[in-house]
Amino acid sequence: MKNILTLLIVISSFGAFAQNDSATATLPEISLKSVDGEDIMLADYGTNNKITVISFWATWCKPCIKELKNINGLLEEWIDEYDMELVAISVDDSRNAVKVRPMVNAFNWDFDVLLDPNGNVQRALNVANPPVTFLIDQNGKIVYTHTGYVEGDEYELEDHIKRLIVSSDETAKEIKKVKKH
Questions:
Q1: E strand spans, the chain
Q2: Alpha-carbon distance 176 to 171, whole Å?
């Protein structure tokens, strides 16, 4: 009986830790190269008070390319309406990484594209296969993750972005109320 009780305590403690950890997950402190060869610290995207969408993709992944094309078609509107940014992280290995820049140029993508040829970020965020999309709130917390892509998933992503805007607006109103009193 004592062993069962101890086991239950350990399991519940682990569950509470896992829940707490995922609810406060942030971007890892890993430096990546942009397609222009610039060093970019991934965690910096979580410190600029913007909503950030991070999409893991590969040049050989048709659903990834479709997702990025569809989001790109909405991106200008989303930037204006939600003050957000899109970052695409290529998981192409070093042999295929040379295909990334020509593809970005061919599709005329005007958002940050980073390279993760060694899979460091992919491992840090437990990304098995692309496409995988992360939504980062204005405070740098990972608040939503989606694996795979089917036509229309970008609108589900937009719904999650809208909820962040509503949530931050409500928080701002509450802060103003507290300051008035």
A1: 31-34, 39-41, 51-57, 84-90, 112-115, 132-136, 142-147
A2: 9
**Antiparallel, parallel or unpaired: β 112-115 and 31-34:** antiparallel
Kindly list the structural domains of the chain, giving each domain's residue range(s) and its CATH number in brackets, ordered by start: 30-172 (3.40.30.10)
**pLDDT tens readout for residues 17-62:** 333 344 459 999 999 999 999 999 999 998 889 999 999 999 999 9
Closest CA to 37 of 108, 144, 115, 124: 115
Determine the Cα–Cα distance for residues 54 and 68; give it in Å rounded to an integer.
Answer: 10
* 3-class secondary structure per residue, 57-110: ECCCCHHHHHHHHHHHHHHHHHHHHHCEEEEEEECCCCCCHHHHHHHHHHHCCC
Do residues 138 and 50 touch, judged by C-beta distance below 8 A? yes
pLDDT in tens, 83-117: 999 999 999 999 999 999 999 999 999 999 999 99
Q: Is 91 buried (19+), middle (13-18) or exposed (0-12) by CB count in 10 A?
A: buried
> What CA–CA distance (Å, rounded) separates 62 from 90?
13
Separation CA 67–CA 70 (nearest Å): 5
Written as one letter, the residue type at 39 is: D
Is this prediction's pTM over 0.85? no
